[in-house]
Amino acid sequence: MHRCAKALPALLALIAAVPAAHAAESTTLLKTTRSWDGTPYPAYPSRQPQITVLRIVIPPHSTLAWHHHPVINAAYVLKGALTVEKRAEGPGSSCSLAEGEVLPELVGQVHRGYTGEQGTTLIVFYAGTGGEDITVPDVLPERSPPTNPAPPCRTLPRQD
Question: Residue 66 in contact with residue 138, Cβ under 8 Å?
Fold first, then answer.
């Protein structure tokens, strides 16, 4: 008998013993038409779309500068925790995120983020158009972050 023919049964037995490849798994982390404060997103411009993805590392006990985004974006907390705060004060003006959570960001509203005891690593996806800024700094008087803990962003009603 040919050497290959002798090896074939052993090879088939080995293949049968290997577990089948696992199917890919998909989990929807976010699907929304509104930002975290419930504001509906604006329509996309009719120019060439451009997707930008940033990895942002924020050290512990840091407060980002006030800014706004002219484009729709969402942030995924890869590591750590973050609190976001709108410049406009009042109910629902801040919320907190933990590792593994996603934030549908504000568009056209001044806001900032800050960290506590632990730093944060974010992956942020921006859906804009070529040549358009994704973040615009706003020069405003400083204000200390709130001392009361913010509610989790996932608990805020977005009415989707």
Answer: yes
Q: What is the DSSP letter of 154?
A: G
In the chain, the amino acid numbered 135 is: T
Give, in degrees to the nearest 5, the angle at Cα 39 between 59 and 131.
65
Of the candidates 45, 148, 149, 156, which has an alpha carbon nearest to the alpha carbon of residue 102? 156
What is the C-alpha radius of gyration for the chain, rounded to an integer number of angstroms? 23
What does pTM read for this prediction? Answer: 0.79
**CA nearest neighbour of 34 among 105, 84, 102, 89:** 105
Are 52 and 128 in contact by the 8 Å Cβ rule? The answer is yes
| Letter string b/e over residues 12-22, b meaning 16 or more CB atoms within 10 A of that residue's CB | eeeeeeeeeee
Asked if pLDDT for residue 23 goes beyond 80, the answer is yes
Q: 99, 156 in Cβ contact below 8 A?
A: no
Tell me the C-alpha distance between 31 and 126, whole Å: 15
For 127, the 3-state DSSP assignment is strand
Select from 77, 58, 44, 53 the least CA-distant residue to 125.
53
How large is the average pLDDT for residues 109-133? 95
